[in-house]
Amino acid sequence: MTTALEKPPDLRGPDVTAVFAELFDAHSRQLRGYLAGRVGESAADDLVAETFLVALRRRHTYDPAKAPVKGWLYGIATNLVREHVRREVRGHRAGLRAVGRPEPDHGAFVADRVDAERASKAVAAALDDLRDEDRDALLLTSWAGLTPAEVAAALGEPASTVRSRLHRVRARLQALLTEKDR
Q: Cα 103 to chain center, whole Å?
């Protein structure tokens, strides 16, 4: 059997269990690191499992001509991160309402979460100010180690869009962080 890293896997073949076991072995560790950086250690394992479960359910939609399997998996994971954060924010707000406390705004909640995980208030505030698409592209390249082409596949965008977005986001973050140091 060809390894998951050598050529596109056959997700429609008769031995899909072995193919997914190989994909899990090849990608789960890096994927977990990316997810832990986005949502914390406690949720990362669940989201890795959910990523592969969604991939298994949607295996018939995978088109190796459009994206390498790594990009496809990170695209699924990124969408799950967004859903997870939305659920967490809703739950947090509901808890605050139940005890009669005012609700913090979403941006402050996300900034506090990133700050706690990465121990950097300046970086957390700068990341929080980014649009979702910009943040996803940046974190997929920096935390997950994906190439711009893989990020493009994960997000369903042209590679040229991702490269220009990354250039713009990095310049903006550099300016924000330099400005806050003064």
A: 26
Q: Which of 98, 112, 49, 109 is nearest to 77 (CA)?
A: 49
Q: Which of 65, 61, 59, 67 is nearest to 13 (CA)?
A: 59
Q: What is the pLDDT of residues 24-65, one digit of tens each?
A: 999 999 999 999 988 888 889 999 999 999 999 999 988 888
Q: How far apart are CA 147 and CA 177, in angstroms?
A: 24
List the structure tokens of 74: 């990170």
What pLDDT score was predicted for residue 164? 92
Cβ neighbours around 181 below 10 Å, total: 7
Tokens of residue 77, six digits: 């994971």
Instruction: Decide: residue 140, CB within 10 A, 0-12 exposed, 13-18 middle, 19+ buried.
Output: buried
DSSP H helices in 40-105: 41-57, 69-98
